[in-house]
Design brief:
heterodimer; A: 188 residues; mainly alpha; Arc Repressor Mutant, subunit A; B: 211 residues; 10 helices
Chain lengths: 188, 211
């Protein structure tokens, strides 16, 4: 798909997502992820970080996209917003890992060529971060992410109201993002 | 956790969508309202406001502070949005600054030299520098809380912009009480008060606006 059509597609999906269309949101995230992965791999290589770091970065960027999507002006195309979020997050991550340097404003739309495949989409780090969440949040995150349960099922299973599950899930995602931020890895 | 699992997690949370613009608007309205009530409840409006309102210096002071507050607040609307340039609005800040300098120049031209010091010092300089930050607290708290939903590239800078906006809003409110009308006074003590709030905003932003 050429860049313009892809950007239009992403923008449409995200607009619908902002109006509450969960399917469109899922499609958007799924479609964006491979591009994010390529960008992350390229940056890791440039800064001498192991390729296994890339998937952590992808997950952290996805969290940022999710938690900050309210800063996107729905009347604008999604490309510049996404590129800026990704860039800021990459600078943040690489700085935290002790790698100074400027990160160019990568155009997410332009990342097309498949450079290399990372088979490390299962991240131990993220698992450890989930462990650090408080009990109801942790159980909810596990139920939805690992067991693929929906909000309703999770609510029944944990004997909570759906609303309470939604609130706890949102807090859990914010907490995860904060854990990522505070998670300084000196050993790398 | 696999990335696909994370995506399922995020999709399940799709219903929670806070829009930055609404949060900022709410913060602005509540912050200004609280500070206005604080102004009325403590020192009140200037007692002779109606009779002096049409004098050039009072009009200048109120017009200048409102213009500055409007532009600084418009800048806050941009600062937390990735991929949107805030540069033009930042340059616009030079407009009220130019207006102020013109006001100072005219004041110096029309006042005899031996009246400069008295006008510059005014009657309540210390109170002005104290009370503008006080009137800025509610807008600063509100804007800062709203900007936590934002995604500023530079948290300190974003905090400083929030502080600048809050300080200018505080000064625009204080102007309705303040009996010192000379542009010399405004250019010194008002700006000092605004600068203090901007600094506080910078320090808060560095801590609170990281994401």
């Amino acid at each position: 798909m050429d860049r313009q059509r892809r950007e239009q597609q992403w923008t449409d999906w995200m607009r619908n997502a902002m109006d509450g269309d969960v399917q469109a949101y899922h499609r958007f995230l799924t479609d964006v992820t491979p591009q994010l992965r390529l960008l992350a791999l390229r940056r890791c290589r440039e800064f001498g970080a192991p390729a296994s770091d890339a998937e952590d970065i992808v997950q952290e960027v996805l969290l940022a996209v999710h938690l900050k999507r309210g800063t996107w002006d729905v009347s604008r195309p999604i490309g510049p917003w996404l590129s800026a979020i990704v860039r800021n997050k990459l600078i943040d991550v690489l700085r935290r890992r002790g790698r100074q340097g400027s990160v160019p404003l990568d155009d997410v739309m332009e990342t097309l060529a498949a450079e290399e495949k990372a088979d490390t989409t299962d991240r131990l780090d993220a698992e450890q971060l989930v462990d650090q969440l408080k009990p109801p949040q942790r159980d909810i995150v596990r139920a939805i992410s690992l067991e693929g349960a929906g909000v309703r099922e999770t609510a029944q299973k944990l004997n909570m109201s759906e609303g309470a599950v939604r609130v706890a899930l949102h807090r859990a995602l914010k907490a995860l993002a904060a854990l990522y931020r505070s998670d300084v890895r000196e050993d790398r | 956790m696999k990335t696909d699992d994370l995506i399922s997690l995020l999709s399940a949370d799709a219903s929670v969508r806070q829009r930055l613009g609404r949060a900022l608007a709410l913060a602005l309205v509540i912050g200004v309202l609280v500070s206005f009530i604080l102004l009325i409840g403590t020192v009140g409006l200037r007692h002779n406001l109606v009779s002096v309102f049409e004098t050039a210096r009072v009009l200048f002071k109120i017009g200048f502070t409102l213009l500055l507050a409007a532009i600084a607040t418009a800048l806050v609307w941009r600062i937390g949005r990735p991929g949107v340039s805030a540069r033009l609005r930042a340059w616009l800040l030079l407009l009220p600054l130019g207006v102020l300098m013109a006001g100072v120049a005219v004041e110096l031209a029309v006042l005899p030299r031996d009246a400069w010091m008295a006008k510059w010092e005014g009657a309540h300089a210390a109170f002005c520098v104290f009370f503008i930050p006080v009137l800025s607290l509610a807008p600063l708290g509100g804007l800062m809380a709203a900007l936590r939903d934002g995604a500023p590239a530079n948290p300190g800078l974003a905090g400083a912009v929030a502080g600048l906006a809050a300080g200018t809003l505080g000064s625009a409110l204080y102007a309705w009480h303040c009996p010192d009308d000379s542009p010399l006074f405004v250019a010194t003590w008002y700006l000092l008060g605004i600068l203090i709030v901007t600094g506080v905003g910078y320090l808060c932003g560095r801590r609170l606006l990281r994401w």
